[in-house]
C-alpha cells in the first residue's frame, strides 16, 4: 500500500491521517495486521517514535488494536464504530437500543424521500437477504440484512444520519449475526421479516414505516432482555 512521505510539520497528525485513510478506504481490512513499526517508518519517512505515537492514538479511538508480541490489527473501519465496540463490548441490548433510535427515524424519512430506484434496490436486497436466510448462510445473511437497513437510512437522504449510521456498520452487522446465529443451547432464528417495512417505504407511508422498524427492533430487544433475566 503506497503511503505518501510526510512533511516535517505536524508529523504525528499527518501519520494519523494517512493511517486512518488506509483503514477507512479499505487498504487494510478489518482483522488484518498492518505493517510493522519499522516498515511504516520507512514508507512514511518518519521516525519510529512518530509511528508509535500515531498508532497509539488510533488504538485509543478503537480503530486499531495493539496485540503485544503479535502486532497491530485493524479493529474497525471508522472511529465511531471503534468507540462503540470499545464502550459497549458484548452489550447487544445497547446496540439494539441505538439502532432503534436511528432506524425508526431513518425509516420515516425513507418513506417520504425515497426514489423509485431506491425502492427497487431495497426489494432486491431484501430478496437476496431472504435467500441467504433460507439457506442458513448466516454470515452472508448478516451482511445483507445490515446492508438493507443501511439502504433504508440512505433512502431518507439525510446526510448526517446516513454518515452516523455508516459509522456503526460493524456493530450493526455484529448485532444481526448475534440475533440470528444458531448457538449451542439457544436459537435466535430470524423469523422477523422486513417485507412490511419495504412496502411501507414503497407506499410512502411514514408512520407505518416507523412502526415496522420499531416493531422488529422491540422484538429483538425483548429476546435479549429475556436472556439477561
Automatic annotation (TrEMBL):
Keywords assigned by UniProt, alphabetized: DNA-binding, Transcription, Transcription regulation
Domain HTH gntR-type: 9-77
Protein name: GntR family transcriptional regulator
Any one Gene Ontology molecular-function term assigned to this protein's record: DNA-binding transcription factor activity
Coiled-coil zones: none
Alphabetized PROSITE patterns for the sequence: HTH_GNTR (PS50949)
Signal peptide extent: none
InterPro entries, sorted: GntR_C, TF_FadR/GntR_C, Tscrpt_reg_HTH_GntR, WH-like_DNA-bd_sf, WH_DNA-bd_sf
Keyword Transcription regulation (UniProt): yes
